[in-house]
Amino acid sequence: MTNPDVQALIDLQAEDDIVEGIMAQLDAIAPRLATLDSVRAAAIKAIHQLRAAVEADDRKRVELGQRLAEHKERHDKNVAQLDLVKRMREATAAVAQVEMGKKVLLELEQSHRDVVNRATEGRKVLADKEAALEQLDGQQAAARATITAEQAALGETLEAARAKRNARAEGVTNGLRLKYDRIRQRRRSQSLFAIESGACGACDTAIPVQRRQAMTNSGAVEVCEACGVLIYAREG
Ligand SMILES: [Zn+2]
């Protein structure tokens, strides 16, 4: 029959496997949430950038509008002045000024139209993107609710598994339990191994026959010097 201490430790280890399995499931949820967050953050960033561009175009539109009005006023004045000019030399200069002014006016009008169109188009795209974000939030709400429910369920399962584990731990001798807990914390996986074919079940380092025999007789749990796990000799 297996040493009761060893059996208690085997039972404790089985509960720890369950606890760590649940923790791994909980850990696996984090990247799913991170993916949802990053998709949403990218949509919001695109909206902010577009909004900034539209606002910059709005400021440009106002500024161009002012320049256009000023220029138009000056140009109208020049055109009116043209009728009053009588002398030939002055008339040539005035006509040239009006022509030049007209060219500038057309250019300003074109720039103004461009910026108005661009801002209008930008606003449309912005509205689309905002609607898409709202839709995304709706879709994500379902995914997030699922994740929250999974987390809550896993949390409860974990709590129950931990309680069961702690109850099992009561059955293990104090010194042995401390040793096991330390090793388990470090390895975060199986920490108690049977000796298999005369070697440590974890690292396969051979255990001298004499020591093996002593361990079989005493039922002792010892530390493998090679890899640091707990080892015990199976009966027979
Ligand atoms: Zn070993």
What class do helices, strands and sheet pairing give?
Answer: mainly alpha
- What does the radius of gyration come to? 41 Å
Q: What's the main sheet like?
A: 4 strands, mixed
Written as H for each helix and E for each strand, in order along the chain, the element string is: HHHEEHEE
Describe what this molecule looks like in 3D.
- This protein has 236 residues and is mainly α.
- It has 4 helices and 4 strands, in the order αααββαββ.
- The chain folds into 2 domains: 8-172, Helix Hairpins; 173-236, no CATH class.
- Strands 2-1-4-3 form a 4-stranded mixed beta sheet.
- Strand 3 and strand 4 form a beta hairpin.
- The chain starts with a helix and ends with a strand.
- The relative contact order is 0.13.
- Zinc ion (ZN) binds at residues 200, 202-203, 205, 224, 226-227, 229.
Quick tags:
Helix Hairpins, mainly alpha, 4-stranded mixed beta sheet, 2 domains, 236 residues, 4 helices, binds zinc ion
How do the helices and strands line up, and which of them pair or pack?
Elements: H1 4-84, H2 88-169, H3 174-187, E1 192-196, E2 199-200, H4 209-218, E3 221-223, E4 230-232
Parallel strand pairs: 1-4
Antiparallel strand pairs: 1-2, 3-4
Helix pairs in contact: 1-2
The chain binds zinc ion.
Describe this structure in a few short sentences.
By secondary structure, this protein is mainly α.
